[in-house]
């Protein structure tokens, strides 16, 4: 590690408090100096109502971490990049693919780091799974099945933005599975068909099914459902010539050909901030839009089925 970078967190809500602030408190590469949020504040740092006030008052700031919902990601990221700050984006990196690509261009032009983070890729099962699937030992991949089902009332209580355009609906968690699949498979994945189940009173789906194909011809099928419970299911099964790789609990557990693999301690957000720090130090960016592109393709090609009102 080299420099210590002055950082501000923008959008103090569930994920900022659950993960970002604790990870930053234990992180030596960043000093949290300020926050910006319309209704919330954080003790021990300077607080501002929005990102424009933050940027105007904090010229010595090096970086910002954006934790508000995706519909405001582009405007906030643009303001930060225009001010010459390095930017870390919560997932999804934007409400559209074109927004994220535009931000990447601006970051390059400004010489700033843009990190489109995918926290599920930092789950402890992901890199061992990727290494095994790329090895000769695994042989060919035959099929991939993703089951990402949870109770929306438990995981997103009172969140209205998830039901609004750009909020992604069930793809808000589902994109985590897609971020893992696109990271661990040694092949690209193309969407062939999708079904989106949309309540009559929401703009975004409560359930979705995706039929994709990997470039080696293996089928990749994903089922996302927010009407599931009480125990959530965040599982990926990959059948290969050498047996099944199963990733469970969102990447916290891994078994390969029937053998449970011993994984290290879970440290998703600590790892994300280490990665952001390394990107700044090496003057580089990490912007992989493939998970968001699969979601965008599902909205583009998916058959829409209306279902009963959610009652939000
Ligand atoms: P949240 O608590 O509903 O929102 C975060 C904060 O953003 C809010 O408290 C609000 O703070 C601010 N905000 C909301 N709407 C805004 C707007 N229109 N303009 C400016 N600020 C606004 O949501 P969250 O669960 O933290 O999720 C935020 C992001 O993190 C999402 O992209 C989500 O996918 C991702 N994420 C969430 C989780 C999770 O478990 N919740 C896990 C991983 C990633 P103020 O009212 O004070 O401005």
From TrEMBL:
Name of this chain's protein: Dehydrogenase
Domain Gfo/Idh/MocA-like oxidoreductase N-terminal residue range list: 6-115
Pfam families cross-referenced by the UniProt entry: GFO_IDH_MocA (PF01408)
Coiled coil: none
Source organism (scientific name): Caballeronia pedi
Record-level Gene Ontology MF annotations: nucleotide binding
